[in-house]
Amino acid sequence: MYNSKITGLGYFVPDNIVTNDDLKQWMETSDEWIQERTGIKERRWIDPATKETTSTMAAKAAKIAIKRAGLTKDDIDFIVFATLSPDMYFPGGGVRIQDMLEMPTIGALDVRNQCSGFIYSLSVADQFIKTGMYKNILVIGSENHSGGLERSTRGRNVTVIFGDGAGAAVLSRCEQDGKGILSSHLHSEGKHAKELALEGPSTGRWVPEILAENDPDDVSYYPYMNGQFVFKHAVVRFSEAIVEGLKANGLEKKDINMLIPHQANLRIAQFIQRKFELSDDQVYNNIMKYGNTTAASVIIALTEAWEKGKIHEGDLVILAAFGSGFTWGSVVIRW
Q: How confident is residue 46, by pLDDT bands cut at 50, 70 and 90?
């Protein structure tokens, strides 16, 4: 069996910056209120005039990652695309990338695991490479949240959190033992699915039904989050996933050089940092600038940390995420 390693990274976020003060035009809120609860100062929202989409952002991030890997689009064997906000209900975003980048007729897989989407996608790509089926796989996380958020006081608990953006990684075959992805660990607990969800429109609550009811109080087509419930589960599952990854590889928390947590809430990341006794240099957070970009958050943060020289050859890097589903997981990497 082969190993797989990340050979290229890239990300793209819209130019349009929306500060906490900017949100006051739609809802009753304040910079202090948002920062105290989430740690977020600003986020990027697509300017509708730019015609940017989940897929166009993904394509821009992918081009950077492929170039940095020293490859061309024709060297990519497979695409794994994670998003909860595809351009269309169907087909998914993977085939859009294959078309936009004018790639050969390679396979494209879409992953719908929301905040843990990139972790799941990386795990899938890792297995394809380890079995020898593919040599270079493009793994993407991209989200366009802004177009589907309720910009009102009623929806502010969710709306202030989310931002738009995309990140991509090229995962390539590696024949060095102990290098690249060492292990991945995936979990779910579906009984809590409705605690963080968007129920309609869907086949369970289809468009004609929503239109027929004509209910002004119907918010089923906006995302719902039971914030405190999600927070309490997140801090537990984050910790479990990290410990599981360390134990699987005979490692301890002191061996961690860099932890890249899903950027859901700065308070969650800080809790985990304290629990594992990690310094500020051992954890990378950028939720302050971008908000929660769901499937894109881990890969955007990983790319930024690498660009800033915070990740070095031989470092132990752990990626961890928790989110809707509930789903959660971790990936352990020897850089």
A: very high
Is 233 part of the annotated catalytic residue set? Answer: no
pLDDT in the model for residue 34: 97
Claim to verify: residue 188 and residue 330 sit in the same structural domain: yes
Active-site entry in 20, 145, 262, 285:
262
Q: Are 132 and 251 in the same domain?
A: no
pLDDT of residue 203: 78
Give the whole-angstrom CA distance, residue 160 versus residue 34: 7
147, 254: one domain: no
**Collapsed DSSP state (helix, strand, coil) of residue 246:** helix
Coil/strand/helix, residue 126: helix
Spatial separation of the C-alpha atoms in residues 30 and 37, rounded to whole Å: 11
One domain for residues 168 and 186: no
Alpha helices by DSSP H, listed for the chain, are 31-38, 54-68, 93-100, 117-130, 156-159, 207-213, 227-248, 266-275, 287-290, 297-307
262 is catalytic: yes
Q: How far apart are CA 141 and CA 11, in angstroms?
A: 9
Is 292 tagged catalytic?
yes
* Mean pLDDT in residue range 190-198: 93
Examine the pLDDT at 88 and tell me if it is beyond 90. Answer: yes
Range of the domain at 157: 3-174
Other beta carbons less than 10 A from residue 19's beta carbon:
13
Q: Is the pLDDT of residue 8 over 80?
A: yes
Which of 3, 265, 285, 292 is flagged as catalytic? 292
- Pair (92, 122) in one structural domain: yes
Asked if residue 197 and residue 152 are part of one domain, the reply reads no
| The total number of structural domains that make up the chain | 2
Q: Is 129 exposed, middle or buried (0-12, 13-18, 19+ CB in 10 A)?
A: buried
The domain that holds 83 is classified in CATH as: 3.40.47.10
Which band of pLDDT confidence, cut at 50, 70 and 90, is reported for residue 60? very high
Position 202 pLDDT exceeds 90: no
| Given 115, 144, 145, 185, the catalytic residue | 115
